[in-house]
Amino acid sequence: AHGSPAGVFISPFVRPRCLAAAAPAGKAKLTHPGKAILAGGIAGGIEICITFPTEYVKTQLQLDEKANPPKFRGIGDCVKQTVQSHGVRGLYRGLSSLLYGSIPKSAVRFGVFEFLSNYAKDESGRLDSTRGLLCGLGAGVMEAVLVVCPMETVKVKFIHDQTSAKPKYKGFFHGVREIVRAQGLRGTYQGLTATVLKQGSNQAIRFFVMTSLKNWYKGDDPNKHINPLITGVFGAIAGAASVFGNTPLDVIKTRMQGLEAHKYKSTLDCAMKILRYEGLTAFYKGTVPRLGRVCLDVAIVFIIYEEVVKVLNTVWKTE
């Protein structure tokens, strides 16, 4: 700090670009944030179309409170009742709201992560695990505020609405219009605190694990090629770690965004009521379907993302 002009403090997290000139010949290539945004959006759109039914079942089980009593006896029963009542298409109710959000969500996530990691990497272009965690945290918080909270609120209301005797939402835009008309824009930002906590921890855990595994695999060669199948395995492990690490926050977030959210005064009040009336195990409702969905989700997203970036590198030349 003493050597900087006018005594200005320069964080060690931000590395001056002039270091690039002194970097060794084996320096890892940086990913342009623009490529990350485009590749992330494509990966997010494809992934959600494949895995949405597991997200639907997970959300239904999390909304199913013991006090009601429970409507579903488990994953199979939830799928069976949904198909009997609404057909196979019922498992895709709410897909539009999630699809409209998944593309920008993944775009923001990877764009912000690459932007931050480009400054956090050392002189050889290597990102260590701790900085990978911090970059993931930043990406998760940003995606929560810009995309995930309003998207998830609409999705949860859509799925919850289907359990009503007379569903009132006819489609994505009609549902958004009704929510905004009844509750204002704040109605699409229910559970913001829980969502920020969930997404921030989610991406921090995922990118920490992914960065650690990739560094271990590459060893001393930062440009070593990673087979897509290995990328998928690493992604699935990272996804599983995030599920076990933050499912309680996911349950709280879902309750704070459901049609019964008015019962809770705050995120903390929601957590305390779940603990008091339903017990500790309620915080892990939907873990199995979420585990299957997230492992597949993260594996697919990382595979598609890496492959799309490779294609973009051949057609979009950046410094």
UniProtKB/TrEMBL annotation:
InterPro entries cross-referenced by the UniProt entry:
MCP, MCP_dom_sf, MCP_transmembrane, TXTP-like
Tell me what topology the record assigns in the membrane: Multi-pass membrane protein
Q: Give any Gene Ontology cellular component.
A: mitochondrial inner membrane
> Which terms does the UniProt entry file under GO BP?
mitochondrial citrate transmembrane transport; neuromuscular junction development
Q: Where in the cell is it found?
A: Mitochondrion inner membrane
Cite the entry's keywords alphabetically. Answer: Antiport, Membrane, Mitochondrion, Mitochondrion inner membrane, Repeat, Transmembrane, Transmembrane helix, Transport
Report whether Oxidoreductase shows up as a keyword of the record.
Answer: no
Q: Name one Pfam family in it.
A: Mito_carr
Gene3D superfamilies tied to this protein:
Mitochondrial carrier domain
- Catalytic reactions of this protein: citrate(out) + succinate(in) = citrate(in) + succinate(out); phosphoenolpyruvate(in) + citrate(out) = phosphoenolpyruvate(out) + citrate(in); D-threo-isocitrate(in) + citrate(out) = D-threo-isocitrate(out) + citrate(in); citrate(out) + (S)-malate(in) = citrate(in) + (S)-malate(out)
UniProt GO molecular function: antiporter activity; citrate secondary active transmembrane transporter activity
Residue windows of the Solcar repeats: 31-119, 130-216, 226-311
Q: What does this protein do?
A: Mitochondrial electroneutral antiporter that exports citrate from the mitochondria into the cytosol in exchange for malate. Also able to mediate the exchange of citrate for isocitrate, phosphoenolpyruvate, cis-aconitate and to a lesser extent trans-aconitate, maleate and succinate. In the cytoplasm, citrate plays important roles in fatty acid and sterol synthesis, regulation of glycolysis, protein acetylation, and other physiopathological processes.
Q: Which family does it belong to?
A: Belongs to the mitochondrial carrier (TC 2.A.29) family.
Q: What is this protein called?
A: Tricarboxylate transport protein B, mitochondrial-like
Quick one: which gene encodes this? si:dkey-178e17.1
